[in-house]
Specification:
homodimer, 413 residues, alpha/beta, Molybdenum Cofactor Biosythetic Enzyme, Chain A, Alpha-Beta Plaits, Maf protein, five-stranded mixed sheet, 17 strands, 25% strand
């Protein structure tokens, strides 16, 4: 059971936006047992759209197109699909009413001719109303295959997928189960891991596919499998993981869940009635930002002092200038004081701090570029750890944030 | 002059990672006059790689593959390219020495057999040494076309592109110039904009391609053109923009530059010897995080108080509890006090604050979900603005951050 995605629009091809839609679509389709065989990003040109459709329908049962459904002249998807399916556009009264309603509610101007044309839709397609916009979703069937066209605006696409496309695909196709399980490791390169687990890997059942994903100091090991018996699938993967874990117990960090680390942290803190405060220096607010993306973060997250400038570590967090002078701003002692003072200042049960030198220049500390101290303060102790994250700013920040979230998971909940 | 990208590896197809490599590659290739015709993401399967190569080489002069070059068994790109070009692997002594050196320096263990195999490289390819890893870049030529294979790890890929691939492409091909100029607007939907600028759009020269990109409350209007005369290209686009601006002066926010807003803000503040402090509530540290991604942010950025919990607005920022009780935590008055107190607390010349209700539940304020106040305090005045950003958390946060950065640009530098 294969699907392919085709994204239409120059914005991806010129690097103006990141293809985040693909991530969402892939995850949602995997959840209902549909694998993605290929993702194709093309320009909004009729010939190229048709060529991509021809190629995709040779490989996959389901093809999802995103983009090119707007009201402006650069939007060609609807007309191209009409030509592809030898179809004509007819006015859809329900959709026209919906468009008028949206304009009355949010825009407060009458609809213009271009908006009205959004209600002209292919006669052969099933139409999905877009609650958050004026471009409808379309579902075409041809020789047992399904071709779906959705708007490219992420929010509108997601809502149409959840409300209409996923339920419809579930009804239309008998689908297998797909299971991915990802193990996070820290501290060993992929080749060294592969060497260590070679015998295990060679004895994996044929039905399990193994992949290594190195990035930002971590190597993720992913086991994937597809099958019609969900229970068997789970048991097979779980029993292989049970054999694997003893081989990597010194580098094992945890499982990468469908549930992100940020959500797991929220749930852990809320369940244990703990609260969190942060004092970020080199990570610049990124940890706070990641944690507060999760709805309900206010149930446990008190706040964060981004003490970027050395002086602000004193003014805002009350870390003594003498301590900073004695040990330097990137030190175990300052990290500890930041974590403990954040905990007290925000009246939280847990305080976490980062202080480091992300580069490219050395700033207020003599510490080697890439040096980062992370401290976690709780009511009865302070745990600190020192890291060397290399010389590249973006990576030092990224690795520090990842590591801080991991420590928060492992040390406090 | 067309290029295509092929990314190899399941991690994109199952939605485990975002294809950020494509953004970097597209931008860098556009800068040297090479357009991307298609981006294809496929699994690491030999047949699919060969099929994608066949299709891409029919459309483009340059094909860049990323991924599948690691030392583990799931990495098939090198062997597949060997087969595709009817080539054999030979040991490259220089690369072997480089791999040994990397292991000595960073890993401190002798190299194993899998690492050694990374030095086995196709005899017909030009080899690019990877300073940050053990997977080399490869450059194949066939009938005037160029096929390049790079590792998928973003950092290694970027460094190989900058050091080897871009200079080599510049030498190898005569290339045209590509120019994109993007105008940001705020406050009007794309169809209303299109209607307003219809006459202008209809009279655009054939050489200019126009696109509308709506997202998070903004519509970006992009003009793109390709040609051999750089000066003419610039003048044509600039003169069209000169005609466009008077038509949209009420919704015009600025130009989206290759230079991001964050970098422009840093440069503006540093040039004017201003400094910045933030007090973030609903944006949760995201503004601070965005600004501190830029190297040298410490030259103007003092810090940020993420006062997420109402109590912390008092404890950390000294906003009086009486003021919060009187006006509520999401109010003009509290936003003003947060911005002004942040400015004073961090001893900065400019203070910016956000306070709002990102949803999904109402929290400590009665304000309607989606209500956000942004305030900017300078030595002589405080400017405040109220926004209604809808009911969806992710969008409320995203729109607030975008708007705050825009206000920072327009109000203070």
């Amino acid at each position: 059971m294969k699907a392919e995605l085709i994204t239409i629009g120059d914005e991806i091809l010129i690097g103006q936006i990141i293809n985040t839609n693909a991530v969402f679509l892939a995850k949602e389709l995997n959840k209902i047992g549909i694998e993605i065989a290929q993702i194709t990003s093309i320009s909004d040109q009729k010939e190229h759209i048709i060529e991509a459709l021809d190629a995709s329908t040779k490989r996959a049962e389901v093809v999802i197109l995103t983009g090119g459904l707007g009201p402006t002249k650069d939007d060609l998807t609807k007309h191209t699909l009409c030509e592809y399916f030898n179809d004509t556009l007819i006015e859809n009264e329900e959709i026209l009413g919906h468009i008028e309603e949206i304009f009355k509610k949010y825009v407060n101007t009458p609809i213009n001719n271009q908006n009205r044309q959004q209600a002209l839709l292919p006669s052969k397609a099933s139409i999905f109303k877009n609650d958050h916009g004026t471009a409808s979703g379309m579902w075409f069937e041809k020789k047992g295959q399904v071709i779906i066209s959705l708007p490219g605006v992420p929010f509108e696409m997601k809502s149409l997928m959840n409300q209409s496309v996923i339920p419809q695909l579930q009804k239309h196709f008998t689908r297998p189960f797909i299971l991915h399980k990802t193990i996070m490791t820290y501290g060993l390169g992929e080749s060294a891991i592969a060497e260590r687990i070679e015998v295990w890997e060679n004895n994996l059942p044929q039905t399990i596919k193994l992949a290594y994903l190195p990035n930002l100091g971590r190597v993720r090991i992913r086991l994937s499998s597809v099958g019609s018996d969900e229970e068997l699938l789970k048991n097979t993967i779980d029993s292989e993981i049970e054999k694997l874990l003893p081989l990597i117990n010194d580098i094992f960090v945890g499982f990468e869940d469908l549930t992100s680390l940020e959500i797991q942290i929220k749930e852990g803190f809320v369940n244990q009635q703990k609260t969190l405060a942060l004092a970020e220096s080199c990570t610049g607010g990124e940890i706070a930002s990641r944690l507060t993306q999760v709805a309900g973060a206010s149930e446990y997250f008190k706040g964060c002092a981004v003490a970027y400038h050395t002086q602000s570590k004193t003014d805002l967090l009350g870390v003594s200038a003498a301590l900073i002078n004695k040990y330097s701003v990137v030190s175990k002692e300052v990290a500890s004081a930041m974590a403990e003072n954040a905990r007290k200042k925000f009246n939280a049960t847990v305080g976490l701090s980062t202080t480091g030198n992300a580069g490219p220049s050395k700033g207020d500390s003599d510490a080697e570029i890439g040096t980062v101290w992370i401290a976690i303060a709780t009511q009865d102790k302070i745990v600190t750890e020192k890291f060397l994250f290399g010389i590249h700013r973006e990576r030092v920040i990224g690795k520090s944030v990842n590591k801080a979230l991991e420590l928060l998971m492992n040390q406090t909940i």
